[in-house]
Each structure stands twice: as C-alpha cells, then as structure tokens.
From TrEMBL:
Keywords: Monooxygenase, Oxidoreductase
Name of the featured protein: LLM class flavin-dependent oxidoreductase
Region (Disordered): 1-21
The species this protein was found in: Actinomadura miaoliensis
Domain of life where this protein originates: Bacteria
Luciferase-like domain residues: 1-294
Pfam families, sorted: Bac_luciferase
Length: 367
C-alpha cells in the first residue's frame, strides 16, 4: 500500500488574513511540501496539471525533475496529466526522461482535466474529450512499447517509422493510472490495458465511486488481467487534523467556507457527512480511511489533498507531521493485515521490471 499526497497547486487567499501568496511562493511551497513528504515517510508526491489561474503547475515534469534531484525514495507522480490536450509524443518523451533522471521513481495519472477552456487553448474541441483520451493513450501506450511506430488516427498527424526518445528506463514504461471523477469510458480504458484506476473520491458520495470502481474491477477481470479483486485501484481523500476534533473544525472552517472548489455551498458538516472529507482527530482520519476498504475493496494507493484553499505552508507542514507520525504508520499496519495474499501491492519500477523479466523467462522456456 502506498500513501502520499497530491497538490492541485492553487493560489488562494488565506481567508483569515486576506494574504495571497505569489506564484513564486506557491511553487516553492509545493517543492517544500514534496520534500517534507519524503521526510515524514510518505511514498508518493503527485502534482496536478493546470494552464489557468489561480493554479501554477503548468509543467509537472519540470517540477518533478527538480524534486527528483532532491529526494531519494519518493515516487513522483501526477494528479492529472492531460491526455486530451498534450501531444502523446511529448508525454512519452517527457516522462521517459523523468524516469531516467529519477532512477525509475516515476508514474503518472492520465485524465481529461476539469477546465473546459483548456481544449481550445491547445487546439482541441472539448466535444472530442473521450475520443481524444482513448486515441491519444493508444498511441502513448505503443510509443513506450514499440521501438518503431507507424500510426494514423483522427486527432493528430500520422507517424511513420517514429522512435520516441529516450526509451523507457530498463525497457519498462512508467506505470499509468487512469483518473476519473465520472466517466465509465475511462474505467473501461484502464481495465482494457490492465492499468491502474484512480478514483478522485473527494467531491462525490461513496456510492458514485463504488459504481466506477466496480465497473473497472469487473472489466479488468473480463480482459484477463487477473481477478476483479486484483485490479489496481487508487483513491484520493481530503483531511485536516488537530489533536482535538473541535480544534480541527474551528481552524479549518474559514478555509472550507471560502475555498474556490467547494466554498459557499454545503456546510462543512454536510460535506463531511456526504463525501470522504474528514476534519477531526488523527484517530478519526484513521477510522474513516480504513473504512474505504469496506466500500471499494483492497486497494493499492491512498493520496491525500493537504495544501489547498489558502492554508498557510506552516499549517500544511504541521499536517504532514501528523500524517506521517500518527496516521500512516497505523494505516500501513492495518491495511497490510487485512490484504489477502493474492492481492498485489502497488506497482513500482522494481516490481514491473521483475515481472517483465519473469515473463521473458517464461517465453524463453516455452520455445
């Protein structure tokens, strides 16, 4: 089981004092948060991709390459890589390069994003969102697995005898998660390729994500990648913690009430009741997170959103201390005890390389 954090990189005023960080401050804060994640023993740092204010992470691989140079163990990922508006060739090259720089500590989450205007900014039509996601990933998948690619589709110019460089590290492409909030087509895509499926698990009730994850698991088995409970699932989550739950609610309430993503809507109490948002004590976060398994089955990756809504960096770093010292050690132990032996652990470069070697050995023996 992998535990980590993801950031959307929003630049939001602190509602308690009205101060808005500069873009420079926010970018540097994201790096500090990533380094802190490794310090407190987390496994993953993931950054979103946005091309519009009030967000700053327009170039995830640039940031992750910088973080790679300053970390040793942390897996570097994305909370969304826009498969619809990025060129698959450029994704293939950028993440293979990052793989080499980070010695394999890289995977990525593909998604369509949640900002409609981004499509025309990059010469695309939002009405083609699903077809773009399907076609572009088919090409990306091939670019990482075939040394020479001939390809023709509807949404970009053809390729003839094309080789993406550099080739993936050790011949093993980065592991891909397909992220979705509401699209069954993306769950189907993840299942078809035997990739991971990441359910945002933030803004919707559990029943919504149960349907998406259930579809992915059934189709994963249908395509022959393993049993349904062996499918690779990741979940998001939102938490804010203090020793006493009353203190956590009191401190977080102004940030919730004014947050661009959910402020001025349901009350904090209603939102906590209807979604996975947990504001309270570390034990409440432990109990709520362990409960995800009851709804979604055994899963491989849990990411938390910690640095949003204008929360000051000092507060976020305090949250990471609590997460790393009091919450994640308990979750690791409990999830490990509950997971059946046949359910796989989260994929890493090392495990994928070993699997590729075993498969090659089986093929050689069969000759």
């Amino acid at each position: 089981m992998q535990f980590g954090i993801f950031s959307v990189g929003d630049v939001t005023p602190d509602p308690t004092n009205g101060r808005t960080p500069t873009e420079h401050e926010r970018i540097k804060a994201m790096v500090t948060i990533a380094l802190k994640a490794e310090e407190v023993g987390l496994d993953v740092f993931a950054t979103g991709e946005h091309h519009n204010p009030p967000f700053v992470p327009s170039s995830p691989t640039t940031m992750l390459g910088y973080v790679a140079a300053r970390t040793e163990r942390l897996i570097l990922s994305t909370a969304t890589t826009l498969i619809t508006t990025n060129d698959p060739v450029k994704i293939a090259e950028d993440f293979a390069m990052l793989q080499h720089l980070a010695d394999g500590r890289v995977d990525l989450m593909l998604g369509r994003g949640n900002t409609g205007p981004v499509y025309p900014w990059f010469g695309k039509d939002i009405r083609d969102g699903i077809p773009l996601a399907i076609e572009n990933y088919n090409l990306l998948h091939r670019l990482w697995r075939e040394d020479v690619v001939d390809w023709e589709g509807r949404h970009r110019t053809p390729l003839q005898g094309f080789t993406s460089t550099p080739r993936p590290l050790d011949g093993v492409p980065p592991f891909v998660w397909h992220g979705s909030i509401r699209s069954p087509e993306i769950a189907e895509q993840a299942a078809y390729y035997g990739d991971g499926f990441f359910a945002n698990n933030i803004f919707w009730p559990k029943e919504h994500f149960q349907r998406l994850i259930g579809l992915y698991r059934r189709r994963y088995e249908h395509y022959g990648h393993g049993s349904a409970d062996q499918a690779i699932v990741g979940l998001g989550g939102q938490v804010f913690m203090r020793k006493n739950s009353q203190d956590a609610v009191r401190e977080f309430r102004p940030y919730f009430d004014n947050a661009p993503v959910y402020g001025h809507g349901p009350s904090l109490e209603d939102f906590m009741a209807q979604t996975p948002l947990t504001v309270g004590s570390p034990q409440q976060v432990i109990d709520r997170t362990l409960g995800f398994r009851e709804y979604f089955g055994d899963y491989q990756r849990q990411l938390f959103l910690m640095d949003h809504a204008g929360l000051p960096l000092k507060t976020v770093l305090e949250q990471l201390d609590i997460l790393g010292e009091e919450v994640v050690p308990v979750l690791r132990k409990e999830f490990a005890a509950l997971r059946p032996a046949h359910v796989p652990e989260a994929p890493t470069h090392e495990s994928l390389l070993a699997a590729a070697g075993a498969k090659a050995g089986e093929a050689e023996a069969a000759r």
